[in-house]
């Protein structure tokens, strides 16, 4: 099973700042990595797939990068609605696995 | 508009059974793989199962293999999750999602399953 490790567990930033979230895989997953955003009481929402492809309707301030084992989600300038929990997910091997999540909170 | 609506969640005793449904609309159901993901209260996301577009292949998490069965009924645009031998650790909100080629691009709002005596 591929283990995804997200860091940091919690990130405290202010609106307008840049956020950098990391996801590291226990073995190479090529670029089969997706990022999801989840707000309290809501279902997850797809942000990024294929490590760097923004999903439909996702603002350009969200970007993804990386391949192999190291991946990054960057939010260039935080908006108030961006404070949420973010999960990475690998789709290279069965079983599909998620990281434990990064909570992005308002400083 | 793509929509997925889960139902069937309930309070059930340990060892009991439950069948969840996910009715979809707004896309050609038979063209897509489908996914079940769950989330225990206050915890992260856990993948449960996937089914191929034609139903010929199914994949399960180790934690549910042999107890849960994923299936689909294309004529009813509905995905199912039959859950048997339920345990306390199966308590979670269960989400269905559309698998659009290695990404879950649309999700339902989930249905809550509570396993408790």
Could you describe the 3D structure shown?
- The complex is a heterodimer of chains A (107) and B (117).
- With 107 residues, chain A is mostly beta strands.
- In chain A, 0% of the residues lie in helices and 50% in strands.
- Chain A has strands at 4-7, 10-13, 19-25, 33-38, 45-49, 53-54, 62-67, 70-75, 85-90, 97-98, 102-106.
- In chain A, strands 2, 4, 5, 6, 9, 10 and 11 form a 7-stranded mixed β-sheet that branches. Chain A has a 4-stranded antiparallel β-sheet with strand order 1-3-8-7, with no helix packed on it.
- In chain A, strand 5 (45-49) and strand 6 form a beta hairpin.
- The model of chain A has no long low-confidence stretch (mean pLDDT 97).
- Chain B has strands at residues 3-7, 11-12, 18-25, 33-39, 45-51, 58-60, 68-73, 78-83, 92-99, 104-107, 111-115.
- In chain B, strands 2, 4, 5, 6, 9, 10 and 11 form a 7-stranded mixed β-sheet that branches. A 4-stranded antiparallel β-sheet of chain B has the order 1-3-8-7, with no helix packed on it.
- With 117 residues, chain B is mainly β.
- Chain B contains no helices and 11 strands.
- Chain A binds chain B through residues 32, 34, 36, 38, 42-46, 49-50, 55-56, 87, 89, 91, 94-101, and chain B through 35, 37, 44-47, 50, 59-62, 95, 102-110.
């Amino acid at each position: 099973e591929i283990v995804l490790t997200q860091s940091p567990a919690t990130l405290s930033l202010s609106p307008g700042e840049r956020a950098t979230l990391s996801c590291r895989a226990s073995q190479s997953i090529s670029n089969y990595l997706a990022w999801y955003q989840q707000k309290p009481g809501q279902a997850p929402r797809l942000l990024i797939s294929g490590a760097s492809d923004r999903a439909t309707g996702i603002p350009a301030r969200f970007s993804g990068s990386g391949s192999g084992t190291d991946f990054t989600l960057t939010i260039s300038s935080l908006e108030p609605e961006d404070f949420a929990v973010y999960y990475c997910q690998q789709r290279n091997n069965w079983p599909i696995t998620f990281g434990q999540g990064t909570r992005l909170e308002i400083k | 508009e793509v929509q997925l609506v889960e139902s069937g969640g309930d309070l059930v005793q340990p060892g009991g059974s439950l069948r969840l449904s996910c009715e979809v609309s707004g896309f050609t159901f038979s063209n897509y793989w489908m996914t079940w993901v769950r989330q225990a209260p206050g915890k992260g996301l856990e993948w449960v199962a996937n089914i191929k577009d034609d139903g010929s292949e199914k994949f399960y998490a180790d934690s549910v293999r042999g107890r849960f069965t994923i299936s689909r009924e294309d004529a009813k645009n509905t995905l199912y999750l039959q859950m048997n031998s339920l345990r306390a650790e199966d308590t979670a909100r269960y989400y269905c999602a559309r698998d659009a080629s290695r990404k879950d691009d649309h999700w339902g709002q989930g249905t809550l399953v509570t396993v408790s005596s």
